[in-house]
Design a protein that fits this description.
With 102 residues, this protein is largely without helices or strands. It has a domain at 69-102. It has one helix at 90-101, and strands at residues 75-78, 84-87. It has a two-stranded antiparallel ribbon.
């Protein structure tokens, strides 16, 4: 590191440069005021819902399991990996088994 030493072995001090352009005063923030929202006449009124009331009992039991009771679908085959295909007749079952085996 290079220091410019004068004859007295003291470093020289540089002159402060003058600021060009406009000089602004120091900023002082305004005093704190608590926020109070202005009154708004445009709020809508929320209606009361009668669908849920303390007088009505709500059914939370488990629903019945849905099962196929028809006679059209005879079974379910797996075409490729987990692709389930409904089987309607014996001919369709033979076609699917031939497709799987090559």
């Amino acid at each position: 590191m290079f220091l410019d030493l004068s004859a007295n072995n003291k470093p020289r001090r540089r002159k402060a440069k003058k600021v060009k352009g406009e000089v602004y005063e120091k900023y002082t923030p305004p005093k704190f005021q608590a926020y109070t929202p202005p009154p708004n006449p445009y709020y809508r009124e929320t209606p009361k819902y009668n669908s849920v009331s303390s007088n009505t009992a709500i059914n939370t039991s488990k629903p019945e399991r849905k099962e196929y009771t028809g006679t059209l679908v005879k079974g379910i085959a797996t075409m490729h990996k987990s692709n389930a295909v409904p089987i309607i007749n014996d001919e369709e079952a033979k076609d699917i088994s031939r497709m799987r085996r090559g």
